[in-house]
Amino acid sequence: MADDARHSPAGEGRLPDDAVKGADAAPPRGAWNLAATAVFRYREASIVIAGLLLVIYFQYSSAAFLSPANLENLVQFTATTAIIAAGEVMVLVCGELDLSVGMVYALAPFVMYFAMAGGAPPWLAVVAGLAAAALVGAINGFLTTLLRLPSFVTTLGMLFLINGFTLTISGGFPVQPLAGELFTRIFGGNPWAELAWALAIAIGLQFVLMKTRWGLHTVATGGNPTGAAEVGIKVRRIKTGNFILCSMLGGFAGMLDAFRIGSIDPLAGGSEIMFAAIASAVIGGTLLTGGLGTTVGAFLGALVLAILKDGFTLLGVSAFTFDMILGAAILATMTVNIHLSRLRDQGGG
């Protein structure tokens, strides 16, 4: 049958060898196909394109969207969410989840405040707040890895525990951070300073994930925990370390916002900012099943969420409708990311 197929339809003899080779070879790829392959080879490309399209749409719909005052609003929402999302990416990549980070966001600034009120210099008070956040992450890690509890259960319990603890030590009343003007401006008093912190954290952790042994072990732990343990990777240490890192970033984001707003609120943060951070990580390409994710993608995911929230606010869309849009955006981006991953696997990219 194969030899017969090499004859002309009219039975006038064999086709030339070049024609046979041309028929057997794959059809040439068009310029658009090559360009699309080159762009979507990078996981963050789709979210960048979506963000640019949203900026064009909202600027066309409202001339105030790219005004300096509105850009500051975008920066404020993006920076806080992106810092927490970077920590969530580290936990998600190693196959776990942290639901308590939104409450650490409220706890750490109060620890910092009490340290300042006790006479500690501002930098030492910040260290105290980070240490409290790290302790929460360590407890999450030990309970999850030693007792083999699902991190969903561990961190959900911790969420309520920290919320009650913060309300108890604060008495339910907000306070003001006690630091000088220069210190306040560096640690979030200026919204662009907070954005600089978010960018530095996203790029730094991206380097850790891609270029360091800790990052490679984190990816291996989430991708194949049994195989990772068999080759000698300290899975418990990796997971506990990333829980600590996630909590510290949540506490740091809370302290930056405290300096920016000029107030420490025991009711700040919570589940809303926690879910926004997880949504940013997912939109940015991090898989909830572990083994894959980027902190730069999470930063871009936080930026897209900020664009959506701010843009629809300018257009007069209600918060209820925004939640519907957020849910649809997560479903759409997850679908696109899964299909792009399959295309990359098929193409060897």
- Coarse structural class: mainly alpha
Radius of gyration: 25 Å
Helix content: over 70%
What is the mean predicted local confidence, pLDDT?
Answer: 83
E-strand count: 0
How many H/I helices? 15
Low-confidence runs:
1-16, 18-23
SSE topology string: HHHHHHHHHHHHHHH
Shape: globular
Strand content: under 5%
Largest sheet: number of strands, sense, barrel closure:
none
Query: Gap between N and C termini, in Å?
Result: 36 Å
Tell me what the structure shows.
- Residues 1-16 and 18-23 have low confidence and may be disordered.
- The protein has helices at residues 17-24, 31-40, 45-61, 68-93, 101-117, 122-146, 151-170, 181-189, 191-211, 213-223, 225-230, 235-261, 271-283, 295-314, 319-347.
- It is built from 15 helices and no strands.
- The protein has 349 residues and is mainly α.
- Helix 5 (101-117) runs antiparallel to helix 6 and helix 13 packs across helix 14.
Quick structural summary:
74% of the residues lie in helices and 0% in strands. It is mostly helical and 349 residues long. The chain is globular and about 70 Å long.
Topology:
Layout: H1 17-24, H2 31-40, H3 45-61, H4 68-93, H5 101-117, H6 122-146, H7 151-170, H8 181-189, H9 191-211, H10 213-223, H11 225-230, H12 235-261, H13 271-283, H14 295-314, H15 319-347
Helix pairs in contact: 3-14, 4-9, 4-12, 4-13, 4-14, 5-6, 5-7, 5-12, 6-7, 6-12, 8-9, 8-12, 9-10, 9-14, 10-12, 13-14, 14-15
